[in-house]
Amino acid sequence: MVLIVYWYDFICFATVAAAIVASLWFLLRRERGCLGIDDTGHVSLLPLYRSKSLGSAQLWTSCWTRLHPGWLLFTRSTSFLSMAALLAWDILKWDASIFVYYTEWTFMLVIIYFAMGIAASVYGCLIHSKELALETGEDVVVEKVGDEFRQRLEVYGCFMQTIFQTSAGAVVLTDIVFWLVIVPFLSNTRFGLNKLMICMHTANAGFLLLETVLNSLKFFCSDFSRSLGFEWDISCYGVVSILSWWPYPFLELDKPWAPIWYLSMAIVHIPCYGAYAAVVKAKNSCFPYLFPNAFVNP
Fold first, then answer.
1. Where is the signal peptide (predicted)?
2. For residue 68, is it within any domain?
3. Is the confidence at residue 65, as pLDDT, over 80?
4. What's residue 46's pLDDT?
5. What confidence score (pLDDT) does residue 264 get?
6. Please, which residues bridge with residue 295 across strands?
7. Which pLDDT tens digit goes with each residue over 203-235?
8. Which residue, 49, 217, 236, 298, is the most exposed by fewest CB within 10 angstroms?
């Protein structure tokens, strides 16, 4: 397939490149600002993870005081298996070319998050079963597992936190575009609405919201650039789709207004992350009043 490039397509390419560069720049700048690190110093994600006081125990514990870590493991496993089955069904029905659509990339990212969550929950259940009491704090665990393991666990938690935030914003964007743009205006043309599509665009948000209600992970609204630095759709999907066939008519590169749409899609990520951050904030604000003896604010 020959790619025909128009002059205004370079604006689209520049928009994608600028989104990636700006996100990484904000990521590194935010990290230095939080830690007071010199610009000449070595920069890593691990200090940023520590600076937010996100203990590794929060990867597998629930915000509900009496909820055993095994329940979080159960919900994460159920979410992972259900979403993996839906994605496998989609691939078997349409073959691997289905990954030209944004939904599949977002769906796969959420599956990756639940897979990481399962691994963290399994480890948390092992700790719980060995009576390494979580109430005594992380330092007790560190004395038993060692500093090297703690560093690996913190790095793992850093990436798990990042994927959680990235998934949240991407799912909001996916479902808004699907339910408010594709279904009302495009489902009768190039997109055939079916049960599988409805299930996928319901399961991604439903399982992620259930996870949010149960877990202890924070959502750093003021630091959403950290997630944008690893933005799944921009860094992976956007570049691949620009160089191949665009399945969405409103983002086709052969239209003169394509740069406006690409710029709009880059900007719309901000309110999408803000919307999910508002959900997490509402959870941490309302639940302590509704369930004062059962809910612990992360």
1. none
2. yes
3. yes
4. 43
5. 81
6. 64
7. 999 999 999 999 998 876 544 544 454 454 555
8. 236
